[in-house]
Amino acid sequence: MTAQPSTSFDTLRWVGNRLEMLDQRLLPARVEYRSYDTAAAVAEGIRSMVVRGAPAIGCAAAYGVALAAQQLRNEPRAQAVAAMDAAFAQLAASRPTAVNLFWSLQRMRRIWEGCQEQDSVVIARRLLQEAQEILAEDIRINRSMGEHGATLLEDGARVLTHCNAGALATAGHGTALGVIRSAVASGKRISVLADETRPFLQGARLTAWELLQDGIAVTLITDNMAGHMMATSQVDAVVVGTDRVAANGDVANKIGTYMVAVLARRHDIPFYVACPLSTIDLNTPDGSGIPIEERSRDEVLGHGDVQWAATGVSVRNPAFDVTPAELVTALITERGVVRSPDRAKIAALF
Ligand code: MRU
User: Fold this and answer.
1) 169 C-alpha to center of ligand 1: Å?
2) What is the set of active-site residues?
């Protein structure tokens, strides 16, 4: 079964025998697609943030495996296995925090292991089918999360979000922004406060662009304005996405999310996390076990060609933080809303 995205752009798409990805590093200035024909190139596209956002990374990696399979030429089995192992390893090394990457690679590996005795054309077809299914399923899941989450937002709600958990971060519709899209589609008047999201500016560049494309009311603030907006009663709810939820409900998301969650609790504002089941990692008992990616110092020193920080200063750039489960009002999943998530409620989802 296929599902059409509800947005006017594709985050990633299969064209001919290649993967095309919207280059998110260039947004909002330029809308340009890049074309990929090897797993190594897709891994580099993920690492360098051409594509980003947990579910979109998972989809891209699945296509990376499909591209590797396309290059098999009925070579001896050992050689084919070595080539595919190398592709899986390159893709797995691209980014460490979003568990959707590993979830998707595991799913592709199961298919590969089930068909590796077959003709190379059959293998390539089977792996491409699975990648297509992962993408279509992601859109369906986002729609379903959107419907569950929309019930939590009142007509007129002013919703703060952090980073970009939209169509750009998924195959389409989005997780956190999917909840907002679905609420708007149901006739509710929703306005969004988008945190700028230092240092990579996913809020200013991507969330603002994406919501403007769809005509959803969006106002940009810098990250350090969130407390003031909450203290002056200008936020009714927070909705964010996530890169990995531990078995106890601790939530890893873009750096700065923890700060927003603490502020939301201080001001008695609900803090919702839109989370497909593919983002829940039952093998990680709590947030302390989630690997936090540390990115290049250049992202903090400035942006593009402009450096504003003092040359020679030492820099830290952890790209994610962990919000303890106790600060999460509810997880919004495709199977429904899980209030005050804990180990037992999360286990019951599977
Ligand atoms: O570094 P990024 O841009 O990949 O980080 C993305 C996020 O933190 C998103 O909030 C998360 O992946 C959820 S996307 C639906």
Assistant:
1) 6
2) 243
